[in-house]
TrEMBL record:
<dbReference type="GO" id="GO:0005829">
    <property type="term" value="C:cytosol"/>
</dbReference>
<protein>
    <recommendedName>
        <fullName>UPF0301 protein FPB0191_01362</fullName>
    </recommendedName>
</protein>
<dbReference type="InterPro" id="IPR003774">
    <property type="entry name" value="AlgH-like"/>
</dbReference>
<dbReference type="Pfam" id="PF02622">
    <property type="entry name" value="DUF179"/>
</dbReference>
<comment type="similarity">
    <text>Belongs to the UPF0301 (AlgH) family.</text>
</comment>
């Protein structure tokens, strides 16, 4: 199964400090491994406005997006920005992950904030998560992760503190009451 454009949801037993109760949007998955962005771990005190100020980027006009938090997307390339957004052409390093979401790593998407070129929805993170060949599949078999289809509303419109539960609910699961014991059939 190709997990590109899916969420992986940390099981309650996953105790790694960064991945505990995390939801990861998988942007790429192939025979070499997988790459994704954690969508529910905001960086404390870091907003899009703060990032723009540090990069000497002046938004075209004040807008609500400036107050959005920036997220810890994962433990790799923590200084690199990864912007998930609704489809919008014209950015120099954008890749369409699906019909609903693109990922961009260039500054031009940040420079578009407040303009008519700005994507309808934006999610800004620093860093990404990565798994080697068959690593994520093995972690899923080991009951570390649940897998569900993408619901872009969870990335762009769901309150941060509800994303873990809401992603699991797309599977019909109340993750707060799931058993932490595994069985073998």
């Amino acid at each position: 199964m190709n997990l590109k454009n899916h969420f992986v949801i940390a099981m309650p037993t996953l105790n790694d400090p960064l991945f505990h109760r995390s939801v990861v949007y998988i942007c790429e998955h192939n025979r070499d491994g997988a790459m994704g962005i954690i969508i529910n771990k905001p960086l404390v005190e870091l907003t899009i406005q703060t990032v723009l100020s540090r990069l000497d980027i002046t938004p075209f006009k004040a807008c609500a997006e400036l107050e959005q938090p920036v997220f810890n997307g994962g433990p790799l390339a923590e200084e690199q920005g990864f912007i998930l957004h609704t489809p919008q052409t014209g950015f120099s390093s954008s890749i369409a992950v699906s019909d609903e979401i693109m990922i961009t790593t260039s500054l031009d998407v940040l420079k578009s904030i407040g303009s008519n070129m700005q994507p309808k929805e934006l999610f800004v993170s620093l860093g990404y998560a990565s798994w080697g060949n068959m690593q994520l599949e093995n972690e899923i078999v080991n009951n570390d992760w649940l897998v569900t289809q993408l619901n872009s509303d969870i990335i762009f419109n769901c309150p941060i503190e509800d994303r873990w539960q809401k992603a699991a609910q797309t599977l019909g699961i109340n993750i707060e009451t799931i058993s932490t014991f595994m069985g073998k059939a």
